[in-house]
Amino acid sequence: MVRLRSDLHYLTGVYALDAIDDPAERTRFEHHLRRCQQCATEVRGMSETATRLAFAASRLAPPQLRGRVLTAVARTRQLPPRVDDHRSSARPRPVPRPRLAWVAAAACLVVAIALAITLVNAERQLHRSRTAESRLEQVRAREQKIAALLTAPDTRAITHRTPSGLVTTVVFSLQRHTMLVSPTKLPPLPAGKIYQLWLIGPPQTRSAGLLPAGKYQGLAPVLVSGVVKGDIFGMTVEPAGGTKKPTTTPLVLLDLTH
Amino acid sequence: MDAADARPAGLGPGLPEGKDRDLDRLLTLVARGDESAFAVLYDQVSGPVYGLIRKVLRDPAQSEEVAQEVLLDVWRAASRFDPARGGAATWIMTIAHRRAVDRVRSVAAAAEREQRSSVLLAEDDVADAVESTLERERVRRCLDGLTDIQRESITLAYYGGYSYREVAGLLGITLGTIKTRIRDGLIRMRDCLGVSW
Asked: What digits encode the pLDDT tens for the residues B124-171?
């Protein structure tokens, strides 16, 4: 559980101005907001105030922009309305998470397990047919970890959907300290950029690995070890080779405790 | 003209002249795929969107690029707008500000921004292409009513795209003080502008 600290309340202003650059701190505050109606109201008033600052900075947009945007609009499909999603990119809702989310999570779990098994089988066949013993060992070790993860008593699944359509399913067990991450519909990245996974925890933020560059279709789920209570899973875009700390705003942030 | 002050509580963010309600309605139409509603919406928000991004990024070409992304995002994600949770103007400006801040916090931009901070504080905000002078004047008057630290920290955070840690560093003030100064300052701004939340 996130510890309620009175000084969290003072983050309303900096939160409303997007001035919290530490993803873990922001996530903690967003959790606090769901429970603190007073804070949520205050943030809302401050966000509306920030909007006034934005309008005061109004400036004629370059004339050519209009045509370009309207042309792009005519060619761009809109996102469907959000039906069931406990997170949102918009400003916080002071609404407790609905029970329905658990039903959805259970359904996700079934899908994730099926997915994991299919992919592991495919991988095994591939490697059995063509390669050396050591590779097979690695696959077996991975398989064992996945099996241990899927059979743990506390295994849970969370699916997260961003407004841009990126869907990430995470299956994890805190008892087994492992997590299976399956991002889908990843937008391609420019050369020199890569997706990096993170475990953001109270002890420290650590890298949870990089996604293989440029192969986002049919990506095998990534197995991550060392997951501990209080961790938040995150994914950012980083320079190729990865970084020690996240340097961009995470595309995905999932609290593994709540 | 002065509709914001007379507005009953809870109706919206309090942009002047009932603009917020129009935007709410337009955005709802946009969510249903209405391209002509989007064109009208574009005419109302492209100025603030571009102006805000330009304020944060400074570079005109980059600002134009990010503004285009944001406006296209508004079209794509319009169905995610929920009037119960805030006004359309705030929904749009939140997207714009976040995108600008994301850009400014990216690795490539990190070096440049070292130089920007001094310019930002010294710069006189008057720009020839600025529109909406009435709203501008009001906001400026309310900003003038803040203490120096409140004003500087809000300006650096919002218009400069700095994190509160960076603002603390720039102003040589502790993190705790920055948090409370920004909060107190925004509360004063909110009351001064008659924001009804």
From this structure: 344 434 445 677 888 999 999 999 999 999 999 999 999 999 999 999
CB contact under 8 A, B76 and A59: no
Which of B70, B86, B105 terminates a domain? The answer is: B105
Q: How confident is the model at residue A126 (pLDDT cuts 50, 70, 90)?
A: low
Could you tell me if B147 lies within 8 Å of chain A, comparing CB atoms? no
> Which CATH number characterizes residue B60's domain?
1.10.1740.10
Q: How much is the pTM?
A: 0.57
Give the CATH number, domain containing residue B120: 1.10.10.10
Residues forming a β-bridge with A179: A172, A224
Name residue B53's amino acid.
I
- Range list of H helices, B7-161: 19-31, 35-57, 60-76, 88-105, 107-122, 133-144, 148-154
Contacts of A81 in chain B (CB under 8 A): 31, 79-80
- Chain A residues whose CB is inside 8 A of the B67 CB are 61, 65
Q: Where are the domains of chain A?
A: 6-74, 100-255
Which contiguous run of DSSP H or E holds residue A33? Answer: helix A23-35
Confirm or reject CATH 3.40.1050.10 for domain A6-74, answering yes or no. Answer: no
Q: What are the DSSP calls for A52-91, one per residue? A: HHHHHT-BPPPHHHHHHHHHHHHT-PPPPPP-S-S--SSS
What Rg, from alpha-carbon coordinates, does chain B have?
17
Measure Cα distances from A129 to A123, A156, B53 in Å. 10, 33, 55
Q: Which of B50, B143, B167, B186 has the most A C-beta neighbours within 10 Å, making it the best mutation to test the interface with A?
A: B186
Q: B22 with B117, same domain? A: no
Q: Give ∠ CA B85-B91-B95 in degrees, rounded to 5.
A: 140
Could you tell me the residue range of the domain that residue B35 belongs to? 1-105
ipTM of model: 0.84
Angle between helices A37-56 and B175-193 (to 10 degrees): 70
Distance (Å) from the alpha carbon of A119 to chain B's nearest alpha carbon: 32
Q: Which regions of chain B are under pLDDT 70?
A: 1-20, 107-133
